[in-house]
Structure formats: structure tokens, C-alpha cells
Predict the 3D structure of the following.
Amino acid sequence: MTTGLFTLPLPAAHADAPLVRDREIAEAQSFFAGPENALVRSIVRLVDGQLAGGYPLVLYGPSGAGKSSLALALAERHRNQWQHDSAVVTNGPDFARSLADAVETDAVAEHRARFHRCDLLVIDDLHRLANKLAAQQFLISALDSLLKRGSAVIITLPKSPQAVAGLAPPLVSRLMGGLVVRLALPGAEARQEIVRQTAARANLQLNEQQIAELASSGNPATDRYLSAPKIRQLVMQLAAESELGREQKTNATKTTMERDVKQFKTLSRRVTLLVAKYFGLPVSELKSKSRRQAIADARGLAMYLVRSLTPLSYADVGHLFGGRDHTTVMHACRKVSTQLESDESLRRFAEELTQEIGAEGLV
């Protein structure tokens, strides 16, 4: 049995690494796999070889296990190794949305060519296609075409494909016919190494006892330890407090986080109020399930601003806005980021709102 800690460097989010755009991934330098994720070693060897041969790579596991990070890192590694010209990286909701748009605009042929002829396909959170039969049927056809031509396919899910309700049996069969790997939350070795790496990048001096205490944060009785993003957030918070000269002890971390959560919620409510006023919408609409474009645009801007002004993860922001999934928040933030580059009035409003929030002492 393979034991010990395995380190997989993650690519930086720069122009030469177009597949990586997630801030949480960019903030990490490596993916750490302890004995709990020993199969990652074999996956990397497979990627360094040829990730194809007629089967997809399926990564599944609990939130915070690093499925998205690992999938994008492997995809970037594979793309660089084999010099692929065409790579498609998407998620379940965007996959279904793009198909619907193609049907509506009579562009199905072009859409099919894009997904049937790419060299690399990555779909994050495939479970979001549950009960969407048209999208699933399109994906089945795309998988058959891609795997026949030897393209690489990487899929992520929270559960094993056969345990996800609402997936068509033919799709489950194709996924289960691939290399299906369960990722676990980082174990003790991995968590401690994450603390060390993050502390080193933040110039935070920690002794081994402090590292061990931070790495064991959570509830050991239920084996619910903090995920890698939460650990990094915790260490960066300690580093910020250290720079301000405030005495910080690791056994006070939980109290500090609970206090900040209240402040983040206050900031979120204020941002939501100002954005709703700017768009002329009721505040309740921004947290509703409405997909009307005007509401979606306002909601996306509010989520983007909360994400930018706090260390909250995509999942945390989604929880504040009606319990939305982290991939939905990620998509909205990326869309707003692009809009801000071209829409001067929107960019000016975002800057003014940020200054106003700062003047109120919320950040």
C-alpha cells in the first residue's frame, strides 16, 4: 500500500494556464495527497502518459476534498504534456445552459462540433445535470465521440455516478466504465502541510504545536475537519492579525471566525441593499430563485462584491444568497469580472460601492 505525502504542484492562474481561473486554486501552490488519497499518484502518472484509451476519469468526494482543483490541475498538466489545441472546461449548469442557447439560436451543429471534436473535456459538478434528460443525452453522444477519438475526459461529482439520483442509466454506465476515483478530505499529514505552506507564503511564524492545532481544527468526533480552502483562510486571517500587532493564539481561532461571520453577514446585507437599489429591484429578489436576466445580473454583482470584500469561499457566498451552489457563484463572479472590464458605468458603481462600504467600517 502506498503511504506518505504526495505533492502535486498546481499551475498559476496566468495567460499560459487558461484552464485555471478559480481564485481558491490560484491561492494554493500544491495539491497535497496523504494516504487517504494515495491514488492521486497513479492518476498523475496516467496523465503524464496518455489520459484516454476509451474511458473518462471520474473524481468524486465531499465538498472541500479538492475535486475541482485537482481536475483543473490535471487538465492543465495534460494539455501542456500533449499540446492540445482545443480544450473545453465547463460545469453542469453551464453545460445545460449552453445546449439550451444553441437550440434557441439554431447553432446546434456548431455546438456539437465543439464538444465532439475537442482534445480535452472537463465538466465540474456533473450532478447538476440530474433530471435534465436532453443535456444528458447530448453528453452521452459527446462522450461516445470523444472517447472513440481518444480525447481526454475529466468529470467531477460529489458522489459515485451510480449514487447520483436523476442521471440516465446510459450515462452512469459510461462514467462507471471509466477510472472512478474517490477523493477524501485531506488527512492529518496533508492538513499540516497545507498549514505550513500557507503560513510560509504569508510570512507567519508557527511552531509545530500551532501547526498541529490548526490542522486539527474541526470536530474529530465526527471526523469533520476543515477543508483545504478553509485552512488557508484561517491561516491568512492569523497572518493579517499578526501584521496588525494583535496577539493571536490558535485556541482562539474558532471564536474569531464566529465573530467575523457576523460581520460578513452584515456586509453582505449592506452590499445586497445597495446593489438592489442601483438596479431598482426589491432586496428579496436577489436571494430568490428567479432567473430573470435583470435579477441574475444584480445578484451576480452582489455575489462578486461580497466575494471580493471578504475571504468567504464561493460556497459561503452561495449560502448567503439563497443557498446557491459554489459553481453557480463561481460562474457569476467570472461573468461580472468580464463585464467590469468593458462596462465603465458598472465598474464605477462597483468602485463607489466598495469605497462606501469601506467608509462604513465593514471592511
